[in-house]
C-alpha cells in the first residue's frame, strides 16, 4: 500500500477532500486500499460527519428479512423449511438499489430469530434474538461497518432479553423492556456506547413492558405499549419516556390507541400522535413494518396471513410525520420476503 503525502497528488487538499467526500459508500472498502491516508480518512468518524454535513451520506433502510427460496431445477419452488431463515437487506430509495449484507460469521445460515437492529454513525448494530438452531436466547452484539464491509463482535448484552424496545441517538443504543429467558416481562433498561463498547444501566421504567416498541422523538426515547408477565397479549395503551439528559422516566397515558402489538409498526402521525402502519392500507394490514427515512417511510406488510409482501414508500406531507401518499415499490424477487423489523441507516 502506498503512503501518499497528498490525498490526491497534484490537487489542493480541499479539492481532493471534496472528491473523496462524493464517493458512494459502496466503493469505500476498495478505496481504503489505495493508500494509508485514504484508509485512515475513510474510516474516521470525523469524515463520516463531514460527509453527512456536506449532504453526501445515503439514507437507507436495513431490513431483517426472510431469505428468498430459489426455484428448483424443475421450475417450481423448493419446499419451504418449517422455520424461515433471515438475512439483512438494504434498500436505498434514491437509487432504487437493493443489496444484501454479508452474513454474521457466527451465524452463516441465518440471523438469530427476532434479533433487533439499530444504527449509529453509519454502522449497523445487531443484538439479541434466539439461536436459530436451538432457540436459546442470546446476548450477542455485532456491529457491521459499511466502509470495511465487516462484522465485529462486541461485548455481550448484560442479560438475556428478547422482544425489547430499542432506539439509537448520538452514538448510543438504548434498550428497555422485553422479557427474560423465563418469559418474565422486564422493566429494566440499559444504554450501549458503540465507541466505548460498554453498557450502562439506566433507571428502570415504572412497570413491565414485554413486546414494546422503541421510538426516538427528538432526544426522547419512547417505549410504547407492551404488557405485563401476568397479562400476555393485553397490550397497554400507555408509554414511558426517557429523558436521556436527566436519566428519568415519565409515563404518558393514551399514547397507543389500539389494542394490538406495536412492534415495528409504530409511526408518528399528524399532530405528533402515534399511529399504527397497519391501518395505512389494506394490503399491509398483516405483519406491517415501517422504517422512517426522514422525508419518507418504507412500509411493508401483506393483505392476509401468507399473502405476498407489499412494499410502499409513504411520502410525508411537509415533513410533519403525516403520511400523505403511498407509492408502491416493485421489490426484486430475492428481496420480496417477509420483513420482521428494520432500522434507518444513514451511510
TrEMBL record:
A Pfam family hit: Kelch_KLHDC2_KLHL20_DRC7
Residue runs in coiled coils: none
GO biological process: negative regulation of cytokinin-activated signaling pathway; regulation of phenylpropanoid metabolic process
SMART domains per the UniProt record, alphabetical: Kelch
Highest taxon in the source lineage: Eukaryota
InterPro entries, per database record: F-box-like_dom_sf, Kelch-typ_b-propeller, Kelch_1, KMD1-4
Protein name: F-box domain-containing protein
Organism name: Lactuca sativa (Garden lettuce)
Taxon lineage: Eukaryota, Viridiplantae, Streptophyta, Embryophyta, Tracheophyta
